[in-house]
Design a protein that fits this description.
Layout (H helix, E strand, L loop, with lengths): L2 H17 L4 H14 L5 E5 L2 E7 L5 E7 L7 H16 L6 H13 L5 H18 L4 H23 L4 H21 L6 H9 L5 H12 L3 H33 L13 H15 L9 H23 L2 H23 L4 H7 L6 H12 L3 H41 L1
Antiparallel strand pairs: 1-2, 2-3
Length: about 400
Amino acid sequence: MDYDVLLEGCCEMGVQLLRYGAEIYRAEDTVRRLLAAYGLEGEVFAIPNCLIVSISDPEGRAHTRMRRVPMSSVDVYGIERFNALSRRLCTAPPDDPGEILEQCRAEEAAVTPFPLGAQLFGYFLGAFFFALFFSGGLMEAVAGGFAGLAAGVCVILLGRLHANFFISTMVSAFAMALVACLPLAADIPLNIDAAVTGAIMVLVPGLVFTNFMSNLLTGDVISGVSTFVRAVLTAVAIALGTGGAVLLCRALWQMPEQAGAAVSYPAPLCCLFALVACLGFCPAYNVRTWGALLCCIGGALGWTVYLLAQGWMGNVYLSSLLAAIAVAIWAQSMARVRKCPATSYLVISMFPLVPGLTIYQAMDYGIRGETELFLNTFLRTFGIAGCLAIGLLLVSTAVAAIRRIRGRVRHG
């Protein structure tokens, strides 16, 4: 057997999973299982942008590969296809290890994004309904929708130009806030906070921030710190872009500090807004078929549990914990039904709960020099992200324990 060819194929599998946004542990575990299918025990180490795999052949010679992982956005369809491929390869490993690399390349070619029009409509839809979700009226929703569309155009265009992610996020945030403020230039009353907040959801790194907490809690310190730095830099870019646009608009149009009032919606309607808003993110994250509907139901379920817990206990941290547990149970259940990673559901279903908005608010307070508000909001963000991460970990740990117990019973 050519162990170098086998190692190259296993590395390609891990790199593709990381590239499409799979968890660190999933990529490492997949490579280990694939090596084990050939009777080998390997050492695997991964961080978000690098994968290192090492094995020893029967003669004792060491074979090592290190691959850099290209930065890209989360692609749920890609994760699902490569997860399914790894299952097939582990069940029936090909005699020629070179086929692993060939099948990986074939799967990569099959992972195609949604059409551009569908992605842009998704950006509009998500921002429109998140503006309503954050107590905006119809005018705020329309302004937020077009602002989200502007942000989406910038994200896609600059992504194709391979622009630096910090610059890309800052430019997208600037365009988004500029479009959101346009109604005020025409003296149309607008709750700018609701409009901008709804549009910001297409850019916030909320799930990334929650993943940072998960990585730290599971002992992946390097991955956790790396993810945290990226989340903070993204939040700073959003704060700089939106802050610059709002300051420019106020200088040009002499905008009022606040216009328009917040709208109070009944809880069932807010849950409906959450469901439809989540649907808008499915094209951007390449969530296909009826899995998209299941993701949206998970988002509405999480917000329903959050509102019920808030009405019962009135504590944002416990409410976030219970809501995360509900979403995680839903995701794990649907993952078993569809035989795909739970990440496919968590990445969309968690959007109404993730503290992406408060990350932006904390950075915005810091840039404006409001130290006390910055510290309070930043600590609140840490607390919410920690509760969400603990909720997800509790469920995933319980599922893993049940799986191990069933395996022992089956073999024992």
